[in-house]
């Protein structure tokens, strides 16, 4: 039997190297990318693949499982709702604009949530202004560890792909150039991840906070921050901290309890698997086990299921089972939480 439709099943993105979302090119690729999809071959066709065809087929499935579609958790929905509301409230604001801070433990979906907010917002702007690719409605940067105002300004410049800044250029020059470009590009939403790297207990942290405030005052945009346990990191202490707290809505992300939503998340992820011998409902039956293994962390759950699927392909099992999952380690934080 000759398989005639195999090329259509293999995603052309298999060999693509992706720029990080902290660059404009990478961010636009993230926004443009359609959700990962893959159609399994009928079993009788899969059995007669040549060695080369089988390698390509399995490799395409591995790529698919490495980027399973984002699950619309309650956190993602709440961040999207509040972010959209703030953007509308700030649309005609000329003084201090309101922002949002997404705070929580490791792997509870903070970065995913703010990126999905940014993606949704950018797509809405594109629909409103079709064909205007000169617009940069969303910026996504990360707070540099042990950073300085110059390093922060360079994160914005790097996102925009500005030519190498001269060593003689001071921080204000870089910031002014960034602000001018973003104003002309009608930026509406600025996403600042890893905000816990901003330590107000240090002089460098205070300087970087002042510089971030400079951006918020010079850009007519809504600022959304995300970080690990931000409310306990000193970000809201002192005069600077109280200014931030007074201008931002706080949304906390937490491990999911073992309730209906957790089971729904497991079922949704299981429904995305593309394995030839996996029995539907297997992972749902293991929902309590998965909660214990991951501590209710959505990021850890995604890792465990995706790693299980890829392992099942590599080892020829074609099914994610309890025995297979037992052999896959998850992050230490989740393991510790699950044992607590």
Structure description:
- The protein is an alpha/beta fold and 340 residues long.
- The chain has two domains: 16-71 and 257-339, no CATH class; 74-253, P-loop containing nucleotide triphosphate hydrolases (Rossmann fold).
- 51% of the residues lie in helices and 9% in strands.
- It contains 16 helices and five strands.
- The protein has helices at 6-9, 24-32, 43-47, 51-66, 74-89, 110-128, 149-160, 171-184, 203-218, 238-247, 260-271, 282-285, 287-294, 298-314, 322-326, 332-339; strands at 99-104, 138-142, 189-193, 222-228, 248-253.
- The chain has a five-stranded parallel sheet with strand order 2-3-4-1-5, sandwiched between helices.
- The model has no long low-confidence stretch (mean pLDDT 89).
Q: What is the general shape?
A: globular
Number of domains: 2
Say how many strands there are.
5
Any idea what the radius of gyration is? 22 Å
Helix-strand pattern: HHHHHEHEHHEHEHEHHHHHH
Give the amount of beta strand, in percent: 5-15%
By CATH, the architecture of the largest domain is named 3-Layer(aba) Sandwich
Estimate the helix proportion, in percent. Answer: 40-55%
Total helical elements: 16
Helix and strand composition category: alpha/beta
Which strand order does the major sheet show?
2-3-4-1-5
